[in-house]
């Protein structure tokens, strides 16, 4: 392995979107069944990538989303509603992040435009 390929492999370990986990390992990590992962996939909450052999592969980001859905389902929320809630929570988090990002330059401005 060359230093460049070692660096690239290490980068993937830090990448939240890298599909590193098989269905069995992903289910184990979030305390769910493979059937639960298939169900939230069918509900379009997450779309796992496929390996060359056609096996589902999940990223850390997808596992966080799946774990949140599992919490809601365990609390009695129907799976379709849990998926919708998680989607809305994720969209809100992204909107708040973008809003904060856009406000930062404005806070540094001085001026007579206001």
Structural category is mainly alpha
Largest sheet: 3 strands, antiparallel
CATH topology descriptor: Multidrug-efflux Transporter Regulator, Chain: A, Domain 2
C-alpha Rg (nearest Å): 19 Å
Question: What's the level 1 CATH class?
Answer: Mainly Alpha
Low-confidence stretches: none
Mean pLDDT: 87
Could you estimate the helical fraction of the residues in percent?
55-70%
What is the overall silhouette?
globular
Strand order of the largest sheet: 1-3-2
- E-strand count: 3
| Order of SSEs | HEHHEEHH
Please work out how many helical segments DSSP would assign.
5
Give me the CATH architecture, please. Orthogonal Bundle
InterPro entries: DNA-bd_dom_put_sf, MerR-type_HTH_dom
Protein name: MerR family transcriptional regulator
Domain HTH merR-type: 20-88
Pfam family, one: MerR_1
What does this structure look like?
This is MerR family transcriptional regulator. InterPro entries: DNA-bd_dom_put_sf, MerR-type_HTH_dom. Residues 20-88 form the HTH merR-type domain. The structure is a single chain. By secondary structure, the chain is mostly helical. The protein has a single domain (14-107), classed as Multidrug-efflux Transporter Regulator, Chain: A, Domain 2 (Orthogonal Bundle). 65% of the residues lie in helices and 6% in strands. The protein has 5 helices and 3 strands, in the order αβααββαα. The protein has helices at 3-14, 23-30, 34-42, 60-74, 79-108, and strands at residues 21-22, 49-50, 56-58. A 3-stranded antiparallel sheet has the order 1-3-2. Strand 2 and strand 3 form a beta hairpin. The longest helix is centred in the last third of the chain and has 30 residues, at 79-108. The model has no long low-confidence stretch (mean pLDDT 87).
